[in-house]
Amino acid sequence: MSKEHSRDPHYKMAKREGYRARSAYKLLEIQNRFNIFKRTFYILDLGSAPGSWLQVAKKFAFENLEKYKDNYYHRDHFKIMGVDIKKLVPIEDVKIIKMDFTYPDFHKEINSFFKGEQLDLIISDASIRKSGNKFSDQVKQVKLCYKILEFSKYLKNKGNFIIKVFQGEDFEKFYVDMKKDFGLVKSYKPKSSKKKSNEIFLIGLNKLI
Ligand SMILES: C[S@@+](CC[C@H](N)C(=O)[O-])C[C@H]1O[C@@H](n2cnc3c(N)ncnc32)[C@H](O)[C@@H]1O
Hints:
By secondary structure, the chain is of the alpha/beta class. It has helices at 3-6, 9-17, 24-34, 52-67, 105-114, 134-149, 171-179, and strands at residues 42-46, 79-84, 95-98, 119-124, 155-166, 182-188, 199-207.
């Protein structure tokens, strides 16, 4: 274990609790604050490797099958798809695609897996490969975020969306643009996100159709 990891409580917790990455706790914190997994059964995760967000998504989707067996919106099964350029170790009952999600062919994968049905939730922890130059990295990340935001067309009315952005020059404009698509957009920096990192999550609630 590296020195940095040995001092990192979230890294140790992830090892202990069987999560593939410490990032799991960022999503769990977002869930605690915004309850984004309420009644979610059809979920898309963009930029999934090594897979801890998929593990979290599967846990909630599975629990929801029992939790929301009522007269309101519910399903008797869940469908979760993850995509990454990197190869992922398989997760049972989760569809994993190895592809660049900005490629047009990825839309075919979405349509064939979800059979044209609308999604309850889209989550993305995707990030560009950092060069170390905070300015150009931030610009590149926001460009990627605009591509990610295009996937919001697959959301159902009132569906939710999580996206990782880097704070910096173009952040405000992206925030304003995202607000056009959702009833409410909140920014949130989880405690488990490293302080030195300029990452921040935008939580789009209640997709407007
Ligand atoms: C921080 S990691 C995700 C960690 C993941 N949420 C977890 O909990 O295991 C970001 C991932 O985004 C992926 N990524 C970035 N751009 C992508 C793209 N255009 N297509 C597919 N994957 C992409 C990277 O390959 C990387 O694995």
